Amino acid sequence: MKSTDRKILFFDIDGTLITEDGRRYFPDSARRALAQARANGHLVFINTGRVYCNVTDEIKDAGFDGFVCGCGKSIYYDGKELFHNDVSRDVCRDIAYACRRYDMFGMYEHRDKVYVDGQNMENELLAEMVRYFRANGIFVGEDVDSDDFEFDKFCCWFADDNKNVPEFREYVSQHFDYIDRGSNFCEIVPKGFSKATGIQYLLDYFDIPLENAYAFGDGNNDAPMLLYCPNSIIMEKGPEELKRQVMMVTDDAENDGIYKAMVKLGIIEPME
Asked: In what order do the strands lie in the sheet with 140-141?
């Protein structure tokens, strides 16, 4: 294959590869399509807001060439870490103290561990996430004053009546981009990093032109990569406004949307 013909494909996980119909499964049609794309000489990458330790074994074992994790904060290829950006520990601790002051319940995510503030955990959704991580063998620390406390990105839950959110948002905007995910939940990522910056890093690494990059997503948190790639594919259930801005709308995951899009785009051939 000529280098100019090689394509690189980026996939969100939840709602894109994994169904959100209550069953949460990885359709066989998508697995086979990904394998066929690789057999055709193309590269396939996960591109997720999740940090690496929170990518499930089901996804890690599915045969991807690599992973863009934490909204571009960590990049892996062929089992090796190509890139990782550190947030200074002073900034990490300052953010944890700010969450206390503004009544924000933070979950601090690092590539290989997760932290919460043991003094600031009175939120059931946060507690549920802690139980989930521990049940899946992920280390969850509770001491933000520890010398080991660090994070790549973080997210917060807050109460309906929390009037401090605008001030908190302004405070963190010194170093971070605040992403409102709705339902009293936000995701906060260091400035200069996104799913799109992860794509550009790999385009430079492999010397692949942007016109050969394909992004598959389903929600507003995928907007940076969907709007960056000229070949952008969103699932049918995606936001209407974003659907108007992408190249293609495909069926949802449970209706073989990934396979159908890849056939229509000529990345793979129809399979019986």
From this structure: 140-141, 113-116, 105-110, 153-157, 185-190, 176-182
Cα gap 257→246, rounded to integer Å: 15
User: Which amino acid makes up residue 129?
Assistant: M
What the block records as the tokens of 192 is 């200069």
Q: What is the DSSP string of 249-268?
A: EE--GGGTHHHHHHHHTTSS
Tell me the one-letter amino acid at 131.
Answer: R
Domain over 89-190 is classified CATH 3.50.50.60: no
* 3-84+193-264 topology per CATH: Rossmann fold (3.40.50)
Predicted pLDDT of residue 3:
54
Whole-angstrom distance, CA of residue 111 vs CA of residue 108: 10
- What's the pLDDT tens digit per position in 148-164? 999 999 999 999 999 99
Q: What ranges do the domains of the chain cover?
A: 3-84+193-264, 89-190
